[in-house]
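Lecture notes, unit on binding sites. The following record was shown on slide 14. It pairs a sequence with adenosine monophosphate.
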Amino acid sequence: MTGSHRTTAPATAPATATRVLVLNSGSSSVKYQLLDMADGTRLASGLVERIGEGAGEGTARMVHTPHAGEAGRRERGGPVPDHAAALKAVAEELAHDGLGLDSPALAAIGHRVVHGGMRFSAPTVITDEVLAEIERLVPVAPLHNPANITGIRTARALRPDLTQVAVFDTAFHTTMPEYAARYAIDVETADAHRIRRYGFHGTSHAFVSRRAAELLGKAPEEVNLIVLHLGNGASASAVRAGRCVDTSMGLTPLEGLVMGTRSGDVDPAVTFHLRRVAGMSVDDVDVLLNKRSGLVGLCGDNDMREIGRRIEEGDERARLAFDIYVHRLKKYIGAYYAVLGRVDAVVFTAGVGENSAPVREAAVAGLEELGLAVDAGLNAVRSDAPRLVSPARARVAVAVVPTDEELEIAEQTFALVAAGRRGGGRES
Ligand code: AMP
């Protein structure tokens, strides 16, 4: 990032400490993973959901999976009034397995933070000042940053002495050139309200880009990639020589591809129209475009597996939803092909990208002239490993690379801790 913040961590944990706790705090949930960065092993993972819901029926649920795997999975219910109580429950479950937060083996906590604005282009050690800056970004990320901030505050209260690092979803996209990041709207208005394209899912795009380069046997600086993160949220990015040069999400994660419940690109005038003609409030339109659109709005289902089943049964609405989803995807592949000029690989990741052979096949169908095709046999293989699904000697590779945002957050967090140990916590 710019400014004079620490880019390396002060050495607060002993040199033998290699564990990183990754926290992803949502408004009513906390997802966590404990990783050992000596070898990348996952020691435990879990989820607390429905935080803040009262006693009785809608009480919180916690699922904790120790590294022994699903067999050792533990669940507990009961009210969890706030994030502090949620983290306390996480700490108890970890302590139960001898992995408590007070362990000297814990080197740092890495927090997922959705919006880092233009200021944070790299993982950053959290200080009071950094936290204040993340708070200043709340107006551009009102749905996401407040929950991340709560998670950070709670974790800092629990272990004030421990290095805590913020890893931003937007960071990977800060390399976008101004002509890709700026909307063509009045410059003064845009700047006054920090309206520009920030991009999201950056942690995944960064992780997948590096792994895809590895799969191609090249350094990240040697390859141009179109990365398609297709989960419940979905985004595409154009990556030139390891750096993002364009991405489909914008000021918020609403722009771009068709998603599970979000519309992606629409004419902004749809909003005025609904306001003026349908009498909908701004909040109504917000809910419509973010929660009641995309695949769910088109056919009532947001799970691609269910949509696939319905298509096989001849369901026309599911077919149309699939076709709209794929058409948008294809338009972005074409656009980013043009942006990059030369493409080494189109890379599919996240729930749909990793698992849906029909989506991958349909997204590149008819693009043979661009050197793009899938091999039906390879595309049908199910695997957790990064793999090529294009025919041998294809001009442009088509790859499937499973994403792992928690591992990426842990790696970025631990890299700061390690740099701090080497340099004693230099200021940048
Ligand atoms: P994510 O947000 O990355 O966890 O992705 C979640 C989405 O992945 C779900 O909503 C499904 O649409 C999709 N998904 C998961 N498994 C499959 C599968 N086997 N086939 C097709 N889509 C899948």
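Take-home: The chain has a mean pLDDT of 92.
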